[in-house]
Each structure stands twice: as C-alpha cells, then as structure tokens.
Amino acid sequence: MTRSTQQGEGRKGTRQARSDRSREQILLAALDLALEHGYQGTTMAAVSASSGLPIGSVYWHFKSKEQLFVALLEHCHKAWMEIHSGPEGLRRKLSRGIAGLSGADPEHYTKEEALLKAAAVWALSRQLGGLGEDNEVRAAYLRMRVEMFKVDVERITESVPADVVERFPDLPTKLTVLSLALTDGFYVHANSDVHLELDFAEYADMAARALEGLVDDYARRAAG
After folding, report:
1. H helix intervals, the chain
2. Can you give the pLDDT at residue 187?
3. What is the pLDDT of residue 8?
4. Which GO terms describe its molecular function (predicted)?
5. What are phi and psi of 129, to 5 degrees?
6. 77 falls in which pLDDT band (50, 70, 90)?
7. Are residues 56 and 145 in the same domain?
8. Which domain holds residue 109?
9. Most buried residue among 18, 161, 194, 207 by CB atoms closer than 10 A?
10. Contact predicate 139/74, CB 8 Å
11. What's the pLDDT score for residue 144?
12. 113 contacts 80 by C-beta, under 8 angstroms
C-alpha cells in the first residue's frame, strides 16, 4: 500500500468516525426529546437544536422523522437485548418493569427501556392514539416487540424449575403475558395525571410474589 493510499484510508476512517459520532449525537438527542414530548411532539428542528448539529446533518443521516424514529427504536432494542441477555427471574423482571420504569427505582431504569415501553402506545389503533397501520415506526416497534417477547419467554423459562416446564410447557409463556400486562399497566398508571400516589416498589414486590406463588402452585401439581 502506497503512502498516498494509506493517507486516503486514514482520512476515510476519520470521516466515518466523525459521521458515526454525529449519528450517535442525533439519536441521543432524539431519545431525550421523545421521552419528554412523544413522537408527535418531536421535530427534526428540535433534534437539530438539541444535538447541536445543523439541520442538514440531521437530514443527511435520516431522510425523515419516521426513519429517525425507526433507527432510534433499533438503538433502544439493541440496548434492551444487552440488558436482558443473561438469566432473569420473575422478581427482577417485575422490579425493573414496575419500580424501575415508573421512576421509583432509578438504578433499574434506562432511557432506552423507557422509550420502548412508551412506544407501546404507538402500536395502538389510530382511534386510541396510535400511529396507524401504515406508519413505519409502528411496524418496526411491532417487529421488535415480537422478538422481545421471545427473549422474555426464554429468560422466564430459565427461572422456572425444569420439571415444572416439562409438565407445563406453556407456563413460561403465560407468565410472560402476565408480567407484560402488569408492567405495561403500571407504566401507563405512573405516567397518567389521574392516579393515586402509589409505592411502586411495594407493588412490584406484590406482583412478584403473586407470580412466584403461581409457579409454586404449578410445582406442587407437577410433583403430585
């Protein structure tokens, strides 16, 4: 490789690194804005101002707001997969999903997880405030939700005794459905202006004990 070729490759690498940093800045700015203002309230101009990058740079990386939000969901999904890559029992899942995402336990909370939970609203029908069936962001979220559900089932399967799973193979799926219903419900409740002041950590513990009790019941049935 000639010296001029090496210099050219070096400049190319520098430009790529700079482009990657700009893209990351845009995504992080969009994440903060989306959590505060939602999809409808987040504009490309606001992302430009928040990221400190010119509007042309934002549009160079993302041709539309839909494309930006699809990339943002992919960023959050990657972070979620890393967080949930290891063993995870019902109690940890519910603590993270109820106490963490409600803001009651900041140590069990990430902005990426919060956005994925908030994005569930986008999957609703248009009549209920969703984005509508023709929206790319909604379609991307639904694809990710399917993948996340499969991971949740795998993690919960690992936490249930093997003999119980063998006797009741659909139990982990049922527990996953129940845990999602609980975490989704408490998240909506925590972000509603019309709700009681609740101790979300206490309710996370109650939810965990309820589902652990179900597992114990199935374990007795498997042994009997």
Report:
1. 3-41, 44-51, 55-61, 65-83, 90-94, 111-118, 136-159, 162-167, 171-190, 200-223
2. 82
3. 54
4. DNA-binding transcription factor activity; transcription cis-regulatory region binding
5. 100, 5
6. very high
7. no
8. 66-223
9. 207
10. no
11. 96
12. yes
**Rounded distance between C-alpha atoms, residue 158 and residue 38, angstroms:** 35
- Give CA–CA dist 166/223, Å, rounded: 12
State the distance between the two ends of the chain, measured CA to CA, in whole angstroms. 73
Q: What is the pLDDT of residue 106?
A: 54
Q: Say which residues have a Cβ less than 8 Å from residue 96's Cβ, sequence separation at least 6.
A: 108, 109, 113
Q: Looking up tokens 């995870």, which residue turns up?
A: 88
Q: What is the pLDDT of residues 30-45, one digit of tens each?
A: 999 999 999 999 999 9
Task: Answer yes or no: is pLDDT of 3 > 60.
Answer: no
Residue 106 shares a structural domain with residue 28: no
Please compute the mean of the pLDDT values over residues 66-92 and round it to a whole number. 91
Same domain (yes/no): 58, 8: yes
Between CA 112 and CA 1 the distance in angstroms is 43
Output the pLDDT for position 166: 97
Residue listed under structure tokens 């928040």: 50
Q: Closest Cα partner for 87 from 142, 40, 171, 155?
A: 155
- Specify the CATH number for the domain of residue 13: 1.10.10.60
